[in-house]
Write a structure and sequence with these properties.
Length: 310
């Protein structure tokens, strides 16, 4: 397997168009019963059937089945078992939903989800996802580049990092009743990572509105980092000058660093990161540097000691 996305990795136009046609047909049925947030998104002209476009960053690797993507999850807010999010996430009410923007920017405030999405054309991004635990998937996300939202919010020059926060509501998220982590869940990126074109905010997958257990209604996807960096159910964005302390850094600083780039040469203290198990496959495969996105992102870390800055 190559360690970068080659032109041959991109979904052929004929294949994409056929999948898109089937996707639209499925959405026509799927969407007939949708109300609330998704209905308002349709009124804002950002509904998936009309707004999805392809991306040169997508891979044509075999997709992980929808059933696996939506039933095998880490989302500790709903429990620590892989099936707990699918079982418990129906409690989460995503209508209405808003995101508060704070910190070093010209346009702080609280934004309704539809107002966040309205100016943006949604894209399908088929990305590899690598969990720090050693398993992986290939998921067709639907979203838009984070940098497009950042530009709208106009961060000032001393905004060096961007911090994200997940909803904190133990009534809806029963996993938060246990002190597994220091809730609410917090993650962050360096500003150049956030502005990279691979980094997206996703609102759907497989051409459907994002399932609750996968981070509805809006989540981050950073495909060259371990999956826990791609924070779910975002309610707050802060532009800050100092590097944020993420939830996993706070919980286990010797095991989880700020960058958390996929790196087969730097093991987790308790297991090797050299190989991974693709969900649906029996044999393990070699893990790729930066999860196969090395050509696109290696320059972000030029000159850095990736063992020290893990």
């Amino acid at each position: 397997m190559p360690n970068r996305i080659l032109p041959s990795d991109i979904t052929p136009e004929s294949v994409y168009r056929e999948r898109r046609r089937l996707m639209q047909a499925g959405l026509a049925v799927f969407g007939t019963g949708l109300t609330g947030t998704w209905a308002r998104l349709s009124e804002a002209k950002v509904s998936l059937p009309d707004a999805i476009t392809g991306s040169r960053f997508s891979t044509d690797e075999a997709l992980t089945p929808f059933e696996d993507v939506t039933t095998y999850n880490n989302f500790y807010e709903f429990g620590t078992g892989k099936g707990d999010p699918a079982e418990n996430a129906h409690r989460l009410q995503i209508d209405p939903w808003s995101v508060t923007v704070e910190g070093e920017c010209a346009r702080p405030g609280t934004y309704a989800l539809e107002d966040i999405l309205k100016p943006h054309d949604l894209q399908e991004r088929i990305y590899r996802l690598r969990c720090v635990e050693g398993w992986s998937m290939v998921i067709p996300w639907v979203g838009f580049p984070l940098r497009d939202l950042i530009k709208r919010l106009e961060p000032v020059s001393n905004a060096k990092y961007i911090e994200f926060q997940t909803l904190y509501d133990p009534e809806q998220m029963p996993g938060q009743r246990r002190r597994i982590l220091d809730w609410p869940y917090v993650e962050g990126l360096r500003m150049d990572e956030a502005m990279h074109p691979l980094t997206i905010l996703a609102v759907g997958l497989y051409g459907k509105v994002m399932p609750n257990q996968n981070g509805a209604p809006i989540r981050l996807v950073v495909p060259w980092k371990y999956g826990f960096k791609s924070i779910k159910s975002i309610v707050k964005i802060r532009f800050v000058e100092q590097q944020p302390v993420s939830s996993w850094m706070r919980a286990a600083p010797d095991e989880y660093g700020f960058y958390s780039n996929v790196n087969p040469n730097v093991d987790h203290p308790r297991w090797s990161q050299a190989r991974e198990r693709r969900i649906g496959e029996f044999l393990k495969r070699p893990t790729l540097m930066f999860n196969g996105y090395e050509e696109e992102v290696a320059d972000l870390y030029r000159g850095m000691d990736l063992r020290k800055h893990f």
